[in-house]
Amino acid sequence: MRIVLGIGGGIAAYKAALLLRLFTEAGHDVTAVPTEAALAFVGKATWEALSGKPVRTGVFEAVETVNHVRLGHEAELVVVVPATADLLARAAGGHADDLLTNTLLMARCPVLLAPAMHTEMWRHPATQANVALLRERGVTVLDPAVGRLTGPDSGPGRLPEPEEIFAAAMGLVLPAAQADDGAALRSGPLAGRRILVSAGGTREPIDPVRFLGNRSSGKQGAALARAALAAGAEVTFVAAHLDVAPPEGADLVRVDSALELRDAMVERAPDADVIVMAAAVADFRPAEQHASKIKKRDDTADPVITLVRNPDILAELVQRRNAAGRPQLIVGFAAETGDAGASVLDYARDKLERKGCELLVLNEVGTDRVFGRDENSVTILARDGSEPEHAEGSKDEVAAAVIRRVTRELEAQQTPSRVDQ
């Protein structure tokens, strides 16, 4: 696929280099088109080395090829990272004062802009009006992430991680390719693989108003689905309660309770090459779900809620896999706390042994750890007893590490993909 990668003049320009690498590793032909301001952050040599092509910024360069027209005509996808406030304004206004804005005017293919700027700039009415206008014209403008910005400030305005942008970009073009050719034209180390990912926290109803739940935001599970998509996999995403948007390009299945999650996973598991059980499943549910709201009255005793165990979905998926003899890799997650009896790692190793999955991703959790945060630190344990692997950083970075480990496990098993079958 012919992709034009535009780079705006912002501190997040360095992440565009990582995105360029993702595109080229997936087999796409990428032309980098930075603005002059972008070259103040990342030099021309970097873009030429990563793309393997000469880099130009002005409309009077390579005039003999009519470059300012040709790039937009030939592009099958245009992605701009980071889309600064100035670049959004120029794109919305139809400016054509450099090669990138000319290309945006000429392009008739899908266009994706990934904004990054300070919070006040993003929230300014002028920027919001520009974004609304671009979206009205059919341009995909991602919402910025929330997190640490340049300097001590944090808030909305952070560039989404490259894996997330990659997945969103592929989501714009793969459905069209699927409609034209009858199959998704995916590439990457997991091309041809089907991955089933669960995410989010289940909610166990007490009555029509109340439920038992947990602190899971679903961020890590969504990041895992994005990383699998970026690696070329076909992803089914079974989502309980999420505080984030589900990943673009995945087949979305919505569930609420643990029993609904169990049914969705069991139904779809036979078609999966890999199962990643990242959902935070409630261990217990109320034995009785009241049909009407439980009333609080002064003349009655406090209500007593009896709990019963929810099914062990991970263990059941392993048991069903083993009984069917399927060549399937299953990854579990453990959100653990240590105590006087054993360490976090001890509890995780015991869980890995009991569940029977091939990999277990350990989170040490607490009220100020993991849940709802943008960063994570995990230990990946393997059933074969190999040395535990540590990964930390943003949840997208952790997800990428987990998917890389999954890829290595599949290669070691030499399981044939569905493309080869």
Automatic annotation (TrEMBL):
Q: What are the protein's UniProt keywords? A: Decarboxylase, Flavoprotein, FMN, Ligase, Lyase, Magnesium, Metal-binding, Multifunctional enzyme
**How cofactor binds (record note)?**
Binds 1 FMN per subunit.
Q: Where is this region: Phosphopantothenate--cysteine ligase?
A: 195-421
Known pathway? Cofactor biosynthesis; coenzyme A biosynthesis; CoA from (R)-pantothenate: step 2/5; Cofactor biosynthesis; coenzyme A biosynthesis; CoA from (R)-pantothenate: step 3/5
Region (Phosphopantothenoylcysteine decarboxylase) residue ranges read 1-194
- Per its UniProt record, what SUPFAM superfamilies does this chain match? CoaB-like (SSF102645), Homo-oligomeric flavin-containing Cys decarboxylases, HFCD (SSF52507)
Q: Which Gene3D superfamilies match?
A: CoaB-like, Flavin prenyltransferase-like
GO-annotated molecular function: ligase activity
* EC annotation from Swiss-Prot or TrEMBL: 4.1.1.36, 6.3.2.5
Q: Which domain of life is it from?
A: Bacteria
Catalytically driven reaction(s): N-[(R)-4-phosphopantothenoyl]-L-cysteine + H(+) = (R)-4'-phosphopantetheine + CO2; (R)-4'-phosphopantothenate + L-cysteine + CTP = N-[(R)-4-phosphopantothenoyl]-L-cysteine + CMP + diphosphate + H(+)
Family recorded in the similarity comment: In the N-terminal section; belongs to the HFCD (homo-oligomeric flavin containing Cys decarboxylase) superfamily. In the C-terminal section; belongs to the PPC synthetase family.
Question: What function does this protein fulfil?
Answer: Catalyzes two steps in the biosynthesis of coenzyme A. In the first step cysteine is conjugated to 4'-phosphopantothenate to form 4-phosphopantothenoylcysteine, in the latter compound is decarboxylated to form 4'-phosphopantotheine.
Annotated protein name in UniProt: Coenzyme A biosynthesis bifunctional protein CoaBC
Source organism phylogeny: Bacteria, Bacillati, Actinomycetota, Actinomycetes, Micrococcales
